[in-house]
Protein 1
Amino acid sequence: MNIAVLLKQVPDTTAKITISDGKVDESSVSKWSMSPYDEYALESGLQLKDATGGKLIAITCGPERAKKMLTDAAAVGADTLIHIPDDGVTDSTHVQKLLAAAVMRFESNVVLCGKQAADTNGGSTGPGVAELIDAVCVTLVSEVNFLEGDFTTIRPSNSGSEKVIVNGLSVFAFDKGSLELRRPNVRGIMMAKKKPIESITSSDLGVDLDSSNVIMNSQTPPPEKPAGQKFEGAEYVNEVVSRLRNEANVI
Amino acid sequence: MNFTIIAETNGDSLHPTTYQLIGAAASMGSNSTVICPNGECASEAAKINGVEKVISATGDCFSVFDGGAWASALSSMCGKMILISASPNGREIGSRIAAKKGIPIIQDVVSMTEGITVSRPIYSGKAMESLTISGSAVISLRPNAFEAALAENDAPINIIDQSADVRISIQEAINKASERLDVTEADIIISGGRGMGTIENFSHLEEIADTVGAAVGASRAVVDEWGMPHRMQVGQTGKTVTPSLYIAVGISGAIQHLAGMRSSKYILAINKDPDAPIFGVADYGIVATWEDAIPALKSALSDLQS
Amino acid sequence: MRIMAYEALDFYDVDSLLTEEERMVRDMVRDWVDEEVIPNIEIACRDGVFPDEWRVALGEMGVLGAPLKGYDCPGLSYTAYGVICRELERGDSGLRSFASVQGSLAMYPIWDFGSEEQKNYYLPKMASGEWIGCFGLTEPDYGSNPGDMITKAEDMGDHYLLNGAKMWITNGSIAELAVVWAKLDGVIRGFIVEKNDPGFSAPEMKGKHSLKASVTSELVFQDCKIPKDRMLPGVKGLRGPFSCLNNARFGISWGALGSAQACFDSAKDYAMSRIQFNHPIASYQLVQNKLSWMLREITKGQLLAYHLGKKKDSGTWIPEQISLAKMNNVDIALEIARVARDIHGANGILDEYPIMRHMANLESVKTYEGTHDIHNLIIGRHITGIQAFTREA
């Protein structure tokens, strides 16, 4: 079984984000990490690999620095490491096309990814790639199992959660679950060092990166929070709750 | 311009976000065509101001949620600009329709103006991005970021039957008593301190937590002296949390507690002592006893939910 | 999912010089310390226990005996070993002591001076953490002066008989084996004593105010009978134990920085949050002076440790260079802990903060593996050629 896992390297979620010249300043990011939801996908992929004896293909579309993340994935058991340089990529449709092409090139039987990346917070990649490869997609899953030729997974439902069974080529997009990504060990790290990373470009994949009709105007710091407001008396609760919704947008 | 809006329901009626999508379109000076998957709530949709027509999309393909099947069934009925809620299902259907049509999707938009220029939060809200879209696209709107349209209309409803391959089937429902979230996972946390009086009074905080899907936290004093479980402790020797909203009830705000929750996006403090240090870090502070404030908070939050 | 990843002070980007392997090892240990050690260390310290789960985890991660090659040992660089020690000691010096003793003091002598049979028998079990080792050199009356030790081994024909006692032995009571240095016909030799050998006991030393999350023991030999094949054939004299100590001291020169970084991190965080006279205390000049001094010493110490790691890996080191690094880095770490406690004010005495635990631990670290003063004299002898340890020539 070929298990494709789509990974993205993002600024660590605890890292400070600084803006300069209307753009997020990547050079000031102190730490880059695997996007947290992708970790769940990777762990699930490794468990599927352990259970079925398959091969795990870790794929990322990103700049040079993203290769380190692939080596980290190798340290916990990824077999094949694919780096798609992101030159010429200007939006998520490009990324989806590249990942879809790579997934098909490696004859993947199943594709796992995080529900959304911690930087763009979009969530389009899993379903978008599924559409491009004509696969069924289940999102917000917490675990994936393979039994007698079928994939089953658990996803939320109105009454809690439900176990669903899917047919054919599938994409699973992971939410946080109880499966934490396993820790590497020294042996894994030393073997990972030797594992080659294959770089495959958009032209190798036969993907044409056309111009996008979305232009990024600017990236700015979030709107200033209003200064702390203090209210005397419980009669102000309603006022505060409505500010939490309308001003702060947190409920 | 006419926006295609994909409706979402909430039990027997339209989800408030559908009204917000239509309102957003209207604020751009546009009418909407609303597509109701599975034909649900089509007549309700027809009453909303700004709706030019409603398409009631019926078919067996809508009986289970399979994003691919839904997108396949809905896509051909969509126009050039498509609005959908940035709910989990909305994001998924939107992504598949966009990929199918070869158009971009912009997710979780919080404002939209002529151009079409949109803005959306990135890096979990640590920054904002402004984008301009020229041409066809799918846009998902963050719930509660746009004003809802009113309902004084009477638009026509077309029923169109659709079919698509459904590749997901439900094997079993797992109705486990939904466990309350842990403080490290929740986006909203309501924490109690000594000011709550007794451990039994925490049940009031738990009710609020269940109303909004929050986690319940506790200060060290409550854990050490009243036996609250240690995993609920927020602070220097407990958990460090970064929710979007931290509600501190009856917590004075000693430095050890602040160490654990200072990085919350927004802090609401409720304390009867106007000089409590917690008010120094709170975005919103209410000087009141918990006995007065908590029931009011509970009813205000329940009202919001409905 | 990690909530608040620790960012270690690295003002001159010394960590950017690490190889990818060293960086990955660092991150593996750092994450484990964040997730498993930091949340549990204060209880372990209060209870005075070394959690067995940590032994298991260290074995699973494969960091025990880090720089040793072959026999299922990790085979990492000495720099990687230093990094491991630093990350462990950021958690607790007692935790790092466990790893130092296991790797540098118990596994290393078998690896360097043992027979093939001994290496094949003991090393894999120790690398996996299945068997814990300890190092018996120091005696109640012979600390800085190990050469005059009185623990004796007698050749009885078909076995050795050991008599004597060792003291201040990390891991002693929980160890499966001890590498014991004793005089056989007046010459110091190494012997492997296993816990069930008759006449051997390892009572725990209680009542410590330092290294409380570490097990410290006496090793007592009362006509202790050990088989003949337990002597380490490859070394005679003090060169044996001193080779082990050099390796451990190297690890400690990095480890102390971890402790210093933890204290600095806490002090900085506290100073930024603590408001007095309407301002965070980090805005006051005296506090900034202290933080600035800490940064200065940590940065110097990092460069010392890193360069020493390179010399160790290239085989171009001398023991005096290790003495300098151990002495300097532990000395400044202890001072940093004290100044950090000062910055924390009264809060600094609570185990809500790690400060006084580090401070108390470092008192031991300053004393063991060669006291501060001994290392000072080692350097003095190197400079002048004149030994100043004893009155005699």
Protein 2
Amino acid sequence: MGRFIVRRVISLIGVLIAITILVFALFQFLPHPELQLAGRFASPATLAHIRHQWGFDRPIYIRYVDTMKLIFTGKVISYDQQLNVDHELVQRLPATISLAVGAGIIWLSTGILFGLISAWRAGRWSDRALTVLSMIGVSMPVFFLGASLSYYIGDKLQFLPASDYVSIGSNPWEWLKHMIMPWFALSVLFIGVYSRVLRSTILDTINDDYVRTARAKGLSERQVMIRHVLRNSMIPIVSLFGLDFASVIGGGAILTESVFNLQGAGQFAATSVQQLDIPPVMVITIFGASAVVIIGALVDVVYAMLDPRIRL
Amino acid sequence: MTTSATGTELEAGAWTPDHAPGEELPPGIGPYRLALRRLRRNYVALAFGALFLVIVILCILAPVYSHIAHMGPNDENVDQATNAVGLPIGPTWKLSHFFLGADSVGRDVAVRLLYGGRNSLIVGALATLITIVLATVLGILAGYFRGPIDGLISRAFELIWAFPIYLLGIVLGLVLGLSGLDLGIVKIGGNSLLIPALIIGVITTPYVGKPIRGQVLGLREREFIDAARQQGLSHVQIMFSEILPNVTSTIIVFIPLVLANAILTEAGLSYLGAGVRPPNPSWGNMIGDGIHLLPAAVHTMLVPGIMLTLCVLGINVFGDGVRDALDPRAKIRIEH
Amino acid sequence: MSPLLEVDNLRVSFRTDEGVVQAVDGVSFTVEPGEVVAIVGESGSGKSVTAMTLMGLTRGVNAKFEGRAMFEGYDLVTLPDVDMRKVRGAGIAMVFQDPMSSLNPVQRIGKQIVEQIRTHDPEMSKAQALDRAIEMMERVGIPRPRDRARSFPHEFSGGMRQRVMIAMALSNSPKLLIADEPTTALDVTIQAQILDELRRLRETTDSGIILVTHDLGVVADIADRVVVMYAGRVVEQGTLDEIFYDPQHPYTWGLLGSITRVDSDRSERLPAIAGLPPSLLAPPEGCHFRPRCPHAFERCTEVPELTSRLSDAPQHLDRCWLEPERKRKLRQVGDRIGLASEEAEIS
């Protein structure tokens, strides 16, 4: 197990470095990168400053080091939006994390619940109904669902606020009211996927030989279900959740944040793109991808703990 | 030691029969013909597949409808298209005149819907093609040769997969959209549909490539590969004649999934401005435009949204049916 | 001595979408303490269904049972689930065909054996149960059992895994061990070792063994009595010698004839029984073997009774209308027993 972790960490570091190189390389493709970085209202003085700061007057490998230094020491500035990117990110992170964590809890628990019900009542009415619901959930683009919810429940019926974010620190009740629809919109897709994955895993596992052996040992049906069928069926769900959660944190929340105007990190990336403001996009991409990879590595470790077969 | 007979495995409990009661299965029926028979009896999947087909046909007929409605997708007719309050009119349900209403600059929503559908479907289909081809080639190469080739391809998969799809899509959409793609021999303009198709296609490749690689790794261990080598077949011949047929069913199962995902991703990217670029319509950017008009003129958002959902739903349900047909699971099996 | 197990006219049918399948159609046999009874047949014969029914593993909404299976005074066929569970894994234990898939891949071996022990003796502490599990592993010849108890199934070889299954099955000292094709998934040398284990079990305890197999070599090695099944019915049963040296049913002749022998002429084709077993949804009228039997005659459209047709061997039963005298002639194919077919021998 220890060796597995070490190997995973080494691989992780390699990928992190590769991410930085890739993002760096991508941005070299832009026409006149230093102009793009300086923003629309660049003065010659700013341009010169940027050229020096970002290493445009140096060979490319030094430019890489300079760029990384800027990013990781929090000195990247967006001239267009007049802010320090890293500071802005830190301010916006709570919204993104609220969205991701809240939605994550909701979709994991609901997905598992629906999956269990569907498997238990396989073939019957409730199973079919849940399958239909999950099909629809999986087919709807999240921003369309979000916008529809925001319009019908927020604007028309005025049950819940249609947009914006209130931090939990300032008013927990309002925070909750503002997060319910975004949580729902983001979760629907995953609930659909998870319930179907769990359902089919359970139905497959029930027919596995070792379940038959468990019965032959004299275990009660309930013990067979919990100790063998469910425990083994949960393993792929754990792995799936880790990856999905990572990708939501890393950027999947962009669409939901934009629709509900949550002013999170994802929305920051989206608006920067629309304004063609490069520095924030670069920084968020690197951090976002890194978050995905790190969480992914954690998930691998947890998965290896649950399923010893993959420790080879 | 054993007799020549092959066994028949009995399946107890409810289970989907391969053929009608009493009907004899002709000998030598291959797994694909069998799957087709099963699929034919799955009315729900067929109905949704038909739904998807209808939508595709409607989109193909976009120019025909444009003629009927007397409006092109980018024609603006603000006078006729606004109501007393200055808002775009809602559906008139008259085929020849703003059947589904107008948008904020006076364009015919129904006409744009069909043209937009074309773009969304083209991007989706192209992206799917790219993903399937790349994933198959890379997956088979990685699984077959293993060693350094596998190392390289797997690292590439991991790297691409690490990028949250929208971040990478936005970045690429931004960079390539601004500057186009100039590979010397091939030049693609920033406005081309190929750009988002390429982006989505490449990003989705690891999703299919990894399972194919896994399957090929498993096949590699089997003796029939050694037997083929021993017969003198070259690597390429083996990959084509022995490995490829075995991963085909996996590929078939993935196609609807990838297509649905590609269409949804294109919508998301277009909504963010990094996909199909205006004024070219796509369902994604139409929904985006509609959202910006909220809370007024809901139809501008609802129409493309519902159409997109129906289209993807059709693909998903049909795809599910295909998957079930290729790999049915009896509820209980008892071996004698 | 009263028998351990007495199966009396067991019939099992399953309702499927395409009709009712009579998987087991009137099986009767006994197992005495210390005896090995082999149930022989090909896939589809009903042998596994019979074995699993004795453990109650075939119960379900679509299954119907008739007949009795008396074990320690209880009828296994009608025993309520609550009581059946007490029997499973303790009074009667089962070893399955494929040890890799029959063990939970994500649980340690020791834990899986302990589970069986503690299910039937919840008072026992985990430590004690583990000791007992290790003792069992040692008995079946697993080296360094205390270390290996912490291993996972995929860390064992096939033969070792099967030994683990046997250890697990024996952990509660069952009176009856049912082994369903225990050696089919293993290669021949390991097969010999597993059979040795079973033989040792028979010698050191009073347990009875039911061995379900399609491999006559295994049968000849270890069985005391043999039950031959075909398409759900018993077609012949008797002692090992009776079956091998005086077989009374054409199907048995075919099985015996298809055994390759070291001393047979190399230019002979491997004999096989022509045709395929019938679909149990629409079985042939009368004797199930009739369509494949070269010796069938008009009477065969009537279901033959399972009875002894030999005055000097009242326990040797068969289901064939042919006269015993005719049988002795018909079963001689060349210099050995077999089922005559259209093909002449090429010499």
Protein 3
Amino acid sequence: METIHTATPLLALLASLIGAFLILFTGGKRPNLREFWTILAAVTKFALICSMLPPILQGKIIEYTVIEIYKGITFQLRVDTFGMIFALLASCLWVVVSVYSIGYMRTLKEHAQTRYFFCFALALFGATGVALAGNVLTLYMFYEILTVATFPLVVHKETPEAIKAGRKYLAYLLTGASFILFAMGLTYYLTGTLDFAPGGFVAGHGSKELLSLLFVVFIIGFGSKAAIMPLHEWLPSAMIAPAPVSALLHAVAVVKAGVFCCLRVILYIFGPEVLSDLGLGITLAFVVSFTVIFANIIALTQDNLKRRLAFSTINNLSIIILGAALLSSQGIKGAMLHIPFHGFMKITLFMCAGAIYVKTRLENISAMGGIGRQMPITMAAFTIGAAGLIGIPPVCGFISKWYLCLGTLEAHEIIFLMVLLASALLDAAYFFPVIYGAFFKHSKGIKSTFDEAPALVVAPIVVTAIGTLLFGLFPDAFIHFFQLAALSAQNILGG
Amino acid sequence: MIDTLFTHYNYWVFAVLLMIGLYSMMAKNNLMKKLIGMNIFQWAIILYFISIGAKRGAQIPIVVGAHGQGENLAIHAAEYINPLPHVLMLTAIVVGVATTGISLALLIAIYKRYNTIEEDKIIEALKK
Amino acid sequence: MIEQFPVLIVVTPLILSFVVNVAGLWNRRLCFYIVVVALASCVVFSLGILKTVLTQGEPIRYSLGNWQPPWGIEYVIDHLNALILVSVAVVALLVAVYAKRSLEQEIHESKIPQVYTLFLLQVTGLLGITATGDLFNLYVLLEIASFSAYAVIAMGERGADFAAFRYVIFGTIGACAYLLGTGYLYILTGSLNMIDVAHLLPQSFYSKALLVGLAFFMVGVGIKMGIFPLHVWLPDAYTLAPSAVSALLAPLFTKVGAYVIIRIMFTVFDPAFSIDLYPVTDIVGWLAAIGILFACIMALAQSDLKRMLCYLIVAEMGYILIGLASANRLGLTGAILHIVNDMFMMACLFTVAGAIFYQTGTRDIYQFRYLHRTMPITLAVFVVGALSVIGVPPLCGFFSKWYLLLGAIEAKQWALVVVLLISSLIYAVLFFRVIERAYLEPREDHSHASQKGHPAPTLDKVPLSMLAPMVFIAAGIILLGIFSGKIIAHIIEFAIPAAL
């Protein structure tokens, strides 16, 4: 595999870092200039990442070593097919959510907007860094930056409830980080390197028990961010954050970083061979299946729309890990596809929840009867997103779920197929009431005339909803998610 | 054991003095007594060092009439007691004096402020 | 000229401290500038020394007064010393610049020259301890540093004189114990020169007197370093001292003590003794683990920011001891790197505490509301320091923690690994407590756009002479982190004895 050495990955990262500080120094006195920096940084970043796409699709790898710390330990950015998936997702959606944020924050006249946009840019810096990290150390660094940068966003409202949620957030994530640190040290001690390799690199470097322990510690560490039960509790609490934060960070950047890292551990540190040898693949699959079902059951009981969506996210994250844990080619492909597809669908849903809040200040589903009449565009987008999550074609969710099901068959584990189907049924069970109530019920305070949220808020929703449809029909459109996933699976299993 | 007690009595004296000093520093309530204990502690060490330089039947380390003879002078080092510990302890004495000076200055300042040099009364006054 | 640097770096602040005192009689304003000149020249000297050591590859051996060792006193500067000399000098200079306005606010005008005198004497002592290669000379310089510390701490707030007196008692026990240790080594080898003693010592490895000597050394330096359980003097002394004084003492004094322990354990007493023959490193490991946990718990209970930071010092000392206890190259790399890193991190945090005290008159964490409006830069510096202590890369704190972790894993000391990780989490709680209070203003109505009754956002009222050093220290933390690799590869690699 040919390796190109350019500084483009670093530039992509710097786009958001420099943007963050420009935002900070522009401050609240000139909000339009400040918002301009956000959009500029987002677009630049997305453009830079897209520019790296052609060589990646040809099977090359882009590498850039920032600095060498010690023998075998470097800060290195390496762009491979899997990293591209996450990087594209995060940067593309940042553009969308930035526009949405501007509309949301201005309509609600929110406080501390400079801090918000500053932390948002830093969080994207962290998320892109996670995507482009070439070894565990770099990954850990950006993982920590992501946690620290998103904390002020979680506690944005500064109510006692928000502060408590922030503390819980930090407690879960920093404890997870300690586990990762330990696992990282152990990995370096056992193997002398921390660089990711498709198909893993720990094979043969330790006894079975030691490697199993290492795997468990890694999964606990990253699993807290990936909201595997019982380490998931921070996610519903974090819904106290403003909707754009929930949308991008908790449906896309933060939790997807967790899942991305889990997949890196499964596929690029340990690899399918080692894991099936240790029998850990199936064990992990069972553990996350519990989350898959249970999260959906809890979602049924939630009246707060964002909390229901949060549990749906927990469910989908574990589905992704399930796909990878099956260690089969289709399963891996499905898991990697579900990362961006779920991202697009979930962000649509969260943005809809935010739009409803902006317009009506409502948060509970039971009070939202008939909102479809008042805000048809929003609810139409919601319906599309929900349909995709359930797995109804032609929304993109169908494609990723299809491959996941194929993956279970390929691994000869029918039970997980049952799990996936049960989860889809439960998805339907809690999404349909929302949609039905929105269009066919009546609640007090909901108008029957068309009164949508402001354009800046609705436009991004429409964009992502159309995106989900587009990916459903042409999974390889524009940013070639499908091809990237296929190439990754190929590299891992073949290479 | 008994003959060690008699031949190496300098070690025993030093140990006893050290412990007296340490006890005084820790257990006494009056700050002045603590200070005196600290002094005893330091002098014990000084005595110890000097005692290890002593030799039976040796001369004090001053060569009579040696001025101007330079390198031509040869001496039997074994006949003189070791001057190095003495020199070191001169420095240590100075250090001890400086420590005592600082402590006394502090004591005066403490007495001016709290009107007492009993430790427990000072702690009580500080708590208020 | 450059050959004289090893002695100049100690003599310059010594003489200039006297000049400061005399000049103070004539014109008080001059004192500050003399101090800055003295410390700036120390920085230049230390950099020159570092360069010489790096190009030469061998330690510099400077004989004072041209009296040859082992009868004469010599200054031996190898890679370890040189690195610490530079750190001490740089931090001392930054704190000195910071100290001007801080001291003017806290200490009566007539005493300012005396404080600067003691400041310079303190730095003399610290630099001397680092540079010297003679055991007794180290004792003398240790006492010089300690005396200045005792006296200058007593100038602080209410209760400082009593805290200083207690420190005198404790510190003297420590210094005397060190002296006893030197005495035992002298009895066994007849020499006071560190290198000479290291040659002569192996003959006496099995004698009990040597073990007692080592024990005295450890206790003595342990008291000065603030190792648990000998740290009791530390919280009171450093909390009640004037802010700038704490900012000088807290980062430097204890870390230089750590350097002394490394020298004694690994240069004077061969690693074969310290590690293989007796379970010294095991004991150190246990002390470290218990000390870190104890200090973390005590720190959680504090509402005074400075007191919390004092307990943090004790915990950070524990970290360095973990590095020693691992007794391998990685652990020792972590320990040495941590000495340097911790100097900067503690300097950062203590100067912030002092700045907050300067502007708001309080150090109580619970009073820190709205601080982000009135002191944004100071708080930003605090966040950098806090994240570094917690161990977020790419700040320097992460790298020393990483090496300590690797060292502990390699030595299979799982208890130490667990303690390292748990303490990081407790640090996170400690610091986010403060950050939360300072940055967030809990309110009921989140969309309340007008901010009635809240102070308007302004820039810090702390003067530039205090802000600039803090920002430099924060920048230093970031740079140390990014360049840790270079520091380790070029300096620390050679500082660790080859036997490990």
